[in-house]
Amino acid sequence: MSSQDNEVEYRVVAVLLVAVIVLVTGFAVGLGIHKSRGGAPTTQAAVPAAAPAMAAASSDDASVVVENGVVKFYFASGKADLAAGALVALGDAIAAAKAGKRLVLSGFHDATGDPAFNAELAKQRALAVRDALVGAGVAETSLELKKPEQTTGTGNDAEARRVEVMIAG
Predict the structure, then answer these.
(1) Domain co-membership, 21 together with 7
(2) Most buried among 18, 45, 64, 77, by the most CB within 10 A?
(3) Given this model, what pLDDT does residue 140 score?
(4) Do 18 and 97 belong together in one domain?
(5) Mean pLDDT score across all residues of the chain
(6) Does the global pTM surpass 0.70?
(7) What confidence score (pLDDT) does residue 11 get?
């Protein structure tokens, strides 16, 4: 067995280990939230589909929202850390990719600060989403990364700091 075979095996083990850690962390956070709310179910009135995305983008915390089949990852300013629940939100996209569909990852950044730094940070964020998908068993050949774009969306810088995952044909 060559050393290259061992490297591939170590990568697979490392990716699986990261995926397990992410899942366990997400479960622990979810359980903590559930217990802090007293475990009582809550009911909410129906809200428009755009409301979760606007609420998620209005803070400087990492978050993830699924809107019209598009998974939108919002990032804290200057960071590329994925929000808890990333793999859960990517469930349909992961299933589609494993069924032969392509996933398109588009990174965006705001207009504040150094444009070159922002473009690199947007790239790192897209790579973090890509790594989560690969860790969940999606082949890299099923993924298309688009060049980062500068956007302000509705004018909210927090909304501009995102990566979108779309299922393509």
Answers:
(1) yes
(2) 64
(3) 94
(4) no
(5) 76
(6) no
(7) 77
Residue 123 has pLDDT above 80, yes or no: yes
Burial class (CB in 10 A: 0-12, 13-18, 19+), 23: middle
| Cα distance between residue 138 and residue 26, in whole Å | 20
The answer to whether 73 and 162 have CB atoms below 8 angstroms apart is yes
Which range of residues forms the domain containing residue 132?
A: 46-168
Higher pLDDT, 44 or 7: 7
Residues whose CB falls within 8 Å of the CB of residue 104, separated by 6 or more in sequence, listed in order: 144, 146, 165, 166, 167, 168
Residues 90-102 pLDDT 10s: 999 999 999 999 9
Return phi, psi of residue 127, to 5°: -65, -35
CA angle, residues 8, 16, 11, in degrees to nearest 5: 20
Are 67 and 144 within one domain?
yes
157 vs 1: CA distance, rounded Å:
51
Instruction: Give CA–CA dist 3/46, Å, rounded.
Output: 56
SS3 call for 96: helix
Same domain? For 7 and 60 the reply is: no
How many domains are there within the chain?
Answer: 2
Give the CATH number for residue 120. Answer: 3.30.1330.60
